[in-house]
Automatic annotation (TrEMBL):
Its cofactor is pyridoxal 5'-phosphate. This is Pyridoxal phosphate-dependent transferase. InterPro entries: ArAA_b-elim_lyase/Thr_aldolase (IPR001597), Low_specificity_L-TA-like (IPR023603), PyrdxlP-dep_Trfase (IPR015424), PyrdxlP-dep_Trfase_major (IPR015421), PyrdxlP-dep_Trfase_small (IPR015422). Residues 75-366 form the Aromatic amino acid beta-eliminating lyase/threonine aldolase domain. It holds the Pfam family Beta_elim_lyase. Transmembrane segments: none annotated. Keywords: Lyase, Pyridoxal phosphate, Transferase. Residues 41-64 are annotated as: Disordered. NCBIfam families: GntG_guanitoxin. It comes from Schizothecium vesticola. Belongs to the threonine aldolase family. The keyword Transferase applies.
């Protein structure tokens, strides 16, 4: 390159060079020419005077991997808002960078094996999202139409996955309202499955249970009853366990206790655990092998997957804990804080939409005639980010609780005191609370 540049310079006046090769007269290319030994080169085009390449340094970039010191420390909208941590970044910097489609990336292989071991399953498959994990599981369990899926009417697979079950499997979904208002029971399932050979019906092939759902637990005993019924009748079971970590942290049972009841379980890394992206699907080897094919068919195969699976492994070890019961993890303390916030609200006279089992507090805004918009405006004034009547107490809220709790208490007192009309409420009385748990 240097000899070519020298010949061009020797045969053309400087002004012509800037016409023939206008990009050469830019500062960065002058630096490159200087480095190649053409420091005497100049053009007639005005250019900034540059002393040396060392002076052209970029301004320092802020590091966003700061955990609770970031925006998540005041964000009560969702546990998906959690900010990745410095230890996750360190893991990314030292991860393997091989091709996971070829099954060569050791960081990813180790994560999948670790999650399979925690849940007592044969194999695991890293996926980009909980939605993908659910869809791969159902596509692998539903093999021959006609077939149907029974689930809770509030399930993520029904309300928040863009109709993926019917689009990818052709299955009919039977969405069931739980009789106890909290979780499906065996009686609910029995009343809504189709097990006979009546050609007028769509036979049930899969029961899909979500645990936790809206922060509420499905008890292990109930799961076991439904699982036994399913196996007696040749039905498959899938668990949307995006927040199963929370159920375990609450003391409801170990990961393996719950997972043994299901054929497949999807677990999310990027909600309460705080990883930047990803979920894992666990099950037996044949199901996971099929799910890997389906993952590739919908564009979910990753090449250098270690850059995301390294952070996910840190999230499992540090936020959930290193054992199947979440030993040494950070989740249980968020449940305690959520219950304290719920009591703060009920002590004022407020009501709750759902009982607080884990890390979600659902305050009843209808009861006091407050709109979600009003709550959010007051939250912003207090430096808190809220979305609706659902308050999600993730672990970075807990780590920042000395800032968050007094301000949240002030917001709750204000909206409760406005219910009588003594203050100028911006919310229309009687408006329904926003019900968008995801």
């Amino acid at each position: 390159m240097a000899p070519l540049a020298a010949r061009i310079i020797s045969r053309n006046p400087p002004g012509r060079i800037s016409v023939l090769f206008p990009r050469w007269s830019s500062p960065i290319h002058l630096i490159r020419l200087k480095i190649t030994g053409l420091s005497s080169f100049s053009t007639s085009s005005p250019t900034p005077k540059i002393a040396s390449s060392e002076t052209q340094t970029e301004p320092p970039r802020p590091n966003a991997w700061i955990g609770s010191a970031g925006a998540a420390g005041t964000d009560l909208r969702s546990d998906t808002m959690t900010t990745p941590t410095p230890s996750m970044l360190a893991a990314v910097q030292s991860c393997s960078l091989l091709d996971d489609v070829f099954r060569e990336d050791q960081t990813t292989i180790d994560l999948e094996a670790h999650c399979a071991a925690l849940t007592g399953k044969e194999a695991g498959l890293f996926v980009l999202s909980g939605t993908m994990g659910n869809q791969l599981a159902l596509r692998s369990l539903l093999t021959q139409p006609p077939h149907g899926v029974v689930c809770d009417h509030r399930s993520h697979i029904v309300k928040y996955e863009a109709g993926g079950v019917s689009a990818l499997t052709g299955a009919m979904v039977k969405a069931v309202v739980p009789s106890n208002g909290i979780h499906l029971t065996l009686d609910d399932v029995k009343a809504n499955v189709y097990l006979d050979d009546d050609v007028h019906t769509c036979p049930t092939r899969v029961i899909s249970l979500e645990n936790t759902l809206n922060g509420m637990l499905m008890p292990l005993d109930e799961v076991r009853h439904i699982s036994a019924f399913a196996r007696e009748n040749g039905l498959k079971l899938h668990c949307d366990g995006a927040r199963l970590w929370e159920a375990v942290a609450s003391g409801a049972g170990s990961l393996s206790d719950f997972a043994e009841c299901f054929d497949t379980v999807s677990l999310c890394f990027s909600k309460g655990l705080g990883a930047p992206v990803g979920s894992v699907l666990v099950g037996d080897k044949d199901v996971i092998k099929h799910a890997r094919w389906v993952r590739k068919s919908i564009g979910g195969g990753l090449r250098q997957a270690g850059v995301v699976t390294a952070a996910a492994r840190v999230a499992v070890d540090e936020t959930f804990g290193k054992g199947p019961n979440g030993e040494g993890g950070l989740l249980a303390q968020t449940h305690t804080l959520a219950k304290e916030i719920a009591k703060m609200w009920t002590d004022l006279g407020g009501k709750l939409v759902h009982p607080v089992h884990t890390n979600m507090v659902w305050i009843d805004l209808d009861d006091i005639g407050c709109s979600p918009e009003r709550l959010c405006v007051l939250g912003q004034e207090a430096g808190l980010n809220m979305y609706s009547n659902r308050l999600v107490i993730h672990y970075q809220i807990y780590q920042n609780r000395e800032f968050v709790v007094p301000r949240l208490e002030g917001v709750l007192k204000r909206i409760y005191n406005e219910k009588s009309g003594t203050a100028a409420s911006q919310g229309a009385a009687g408006d329904k609370s926003v019900y968008q748990p995801q």
